[in-house]
Amino acid sequence: MRYFLLPLGCATNKADSERIAAVLESIGYTLADNEEDASVIGIVACSIRQSAIDRVYSKIHKWNQRKRKKPLITFVSGCILPEDQRKFLKLFDLLVKLEEVSKLPQMLKEYGVVAPQSFWEITPRRGSSYKALVPIQNGCDKFCTFCAVPYTRGREESRPSAEILTEVDELLVGGYKQITLLGQNVNSYGLDVETEMSFAELLREIGKKADAAPHKVWVHYTSPHPRDMNADVYEVQSSSPSLANYLNLPLQSGDDEVLRRMNRRYSLEQYLEKLDLARKYMPDLTVSTDIIVGFCGETTEQFERTRAAMVRGKFDLAFIAQYSARPGAVAQQRFQDDVAKADKKQRDIDLTDVLRETAAENNQKLVGKVITVLVEQVSRKPGKLLGRSEGLKSVEFESGDQDLIGNFVDMKITSADAWRLQGELIGFNEAN
C-alpha cells in the first residue's frame, strides 16, 4: 500500500511527519508521488493558524468525495485544539495523537498489539539527503495569549540529551550538512528537567560534534524566546564554526502595552538589549524576527512603535502575520479582535516596506564578497540554481549542473536586492 502525508504549519510539524512516515514504512507502506496515488492519506494539522485549518477542511472534503470511487483511509494528527479534534473525528477515519503515533499500525492494520514506543524513539524518514530537522523540545510553558500551542502540544518537555546527541551523530555519519534544532521555545531546553543540560550546554556539545565532522556542517536552531535568551547561548554560538551565524529572535510587537496583553513578559528595551548583545558577540549576524500586526486593541500609535522597532532592529528577514483569533487561545476569550482587516493589511504592507529597506541595506554589504552557499534546488529561471547562505538568505546563480544540489559552493555576490542575492559561482567549497 502507498501513503501520502501533508504537513501544515511550522517546521516542527514537518519533523513530526518524518516520524509518522517512518512508522508507516516500518509496516511496508511506500511513499506515493502524489495524493491521488495513495490509499492512505494523513495530514499533520496546525490549529495555530485559521488558514491552515481551512486547508484541512478543503482537503478532507475532497478526499471523502474520492472514497465514493475507490478505497481510501484518512487520518489526521499534529497540533490540534480540542474543538478542532471534535470536528475532525466526524470527518477523518482516524485521529492520531502525536504521543500515540507508534500505535498507528494497530489502527490501520489491526494486526495485533504493538509494544508502546516513545515518539522521540521513532527514527524519522528524512525528506532530504543533506538537510535534517532535529526536535529537541516539545510543548510550551509561556502561554502567550495569541497562541494555542500549550493547549495543542501540552507543557514544555525536553527530549533526553543523550537521544539528541545520538541522532546528531547519526546525521553526521550520514553526511548531512545542515541540521536545524527545533522547539517551540528551543532555548528553554532543560528548564523542565533538573538533571538535564541547559540549551547552551547542549548547543556546545552539538557544535563540538559538528566541528569534528569530516565535512562542513551548519547547525541552526529555531525558535528561541527572548525571555530565556542569555549571553551563554551567544558565547557558545560565536565560538563554534559549525553553529550558524544566524538568529531568529521573535519580537511580536514593539509596544510594551501590546507585549503585556500578549503575555510576552519582556519589554522592548529588554528585547533590544538582547539583540544588541547578540550582535556584540557576532558582528556579522543575520537576524530574523516574527511580528504580529493588528493584535487586539493595537492602536495606530502602538503600531508606530512597532514600525520604529523594526527600523531600529535592522532585520534581514521578518515573518509578519496579521492577527487572527484562534479558538482556545486566551486572547480569543479575553480580548476583542477589534482592529479592522484593512488596517491589519496596511500595517503588514508598512512593515514589509521597512523590511525591504533594512534587508536591502544589509544585503548590499555582501556585494563583491565571497560567501559559502548550500545549493538547494533548480531556479524557476532557466539555467540557474538556488541556494542559501549561512544566514538563510536566498542566493541565485547561473549553472545547469544539478550535481551541485546538496553541496557547499563558494560564491561571489554580484548584486542584491531585499529578497535575494545574485552570485557568480567560483567552485566547490573545499570543506564539502
From TrEMBL:
One Gene Ontology term, aspect cellular component: cytosol
Domain TRAM: from-to ranges: 364-427
Keywords: 4Fe-4S, Iron, Iron-sulfur, Metal-binding, S-adenosyl-L-methionine, Transferase
SMART domains: Elp3
Location of the Radical SAM core domain: 126-361
GTP-binding recorded as keyword: no
Cofactor: [4Fe-4S] cluster
Stretches assigned to the MTTase N-terminal domain: 1-113
UniProt keyword Iron present: yes
InterPro entries noted in UniProt: Elp3/MiaA/NifB-like_rSAM, Methylthiotransferase, Methylthiotransferase_CS, Methylthiotransferase_N, Methylthiotransferase_N_sf, rSAM, rSAM_horseshoe, rSAM_sf
EC number: 2.8.4.3
UniProt GO MF annotations: 4 iron, 4 sulfur cluster binding; metal ion binding; tRNA-2-methylthio-N(6)-dimethylallyladenosine(37) synthase activity
UniProt function note: Catalyzes the methylthiolation of N6-(dimethylallyl)adenosine (i(6)A), leading to the formation of 2-methylthio-N6-(dimethylallyl)adenosine (ms(2)i(6)A) at position 37 in tRNAs that read codons beginning with uridine.
Listed name of the protein: tRNA-2-methylthio-N(6)-dimethylallyladenosine synthase
Protein species of origin: Candidatus Kerfeldbacteria bacterium CG15_BIG_FIL_POST_REV_8_21_14_020_45_12
